[in-house]
Amino acid sequence: MFRGIVQGRGVIKSISKSEDSQRQGIVFPEDILKLVDVDTVMLVNGCSLTVVRILNDTVYFDIDQALGTTTFDKLKEGDQVNLEVHPKFGEVVGRGGLTGNIKGTASIVEVEDNEVGLSVLIDIPKALAENLTVQDDIGINGISSSIISMSNSVITLHYPRDLFVKTNLATFSKDMKVNVEILNEW
């Protein structure tokens, strides 16, 4: 289990694609780079991935099975991704813990920037939204949040402004696709 609390942002430096997989090289902030090694399991935009190589400040991941359920095939060089290193054994995870098992993608319908933060409306695919209710926790790009309101399959989430420093929330825009982890399934 992960905390669902993003520790920092990485920037995609390179993407090498083959027919059914890709390797992404992501430039890591120095404080997170110190926490990883080859075989470290971590969240990248909410998806559990394993570090396969580290070269200077760039950390590499091989992505195959996750291509069908995540936004990885849509990302490009220069895009920002949220990063969270797996907590050490015995550390408390908390209520909004994430597994890194992305169930699908969703589309941002509206982003409202206000004085306290960001209100984001996200259209969750009906198959994923059928068991969701207000106050449920949900993971969006690795950020665990409680659903504030819901109308059909459109949920509203609020993110405080202080999350902008370490996450890619500032890049959220209408029609953008995001990774979704449903937390009430287990």
UniProtKB/TrEMBL annotation:
GO terms of molecular function: riboflavin synthase activity
Lumazine-binding repeat windows: 1-96, 97-186
Pfam families named among the record's database cross-references: Lum_binding
Lineage top rank: taxon: Bacteria
Annotated Lumazine-binding domain residues: 1-96, 97-186
Keyword annotations from UniProtKB, A to Z: Repeat
Biological process per Gene Ontology, one example term: riboflavin biosynthetic process
Record-linked InterPro entries: ATP_synth_asu-like_sf (IPR023366), Lumazine-bd (IPR001783), Lumazine-bd_dom (IPR026017), Riboflavin_synthase-like_b-brl (IPR017938)
PROSITE patterns: LUMAZINE_BIND
Name of the featured protein: Lumazine-binding domain-containing protein
Species of provenance: Photobacterium aquimaris
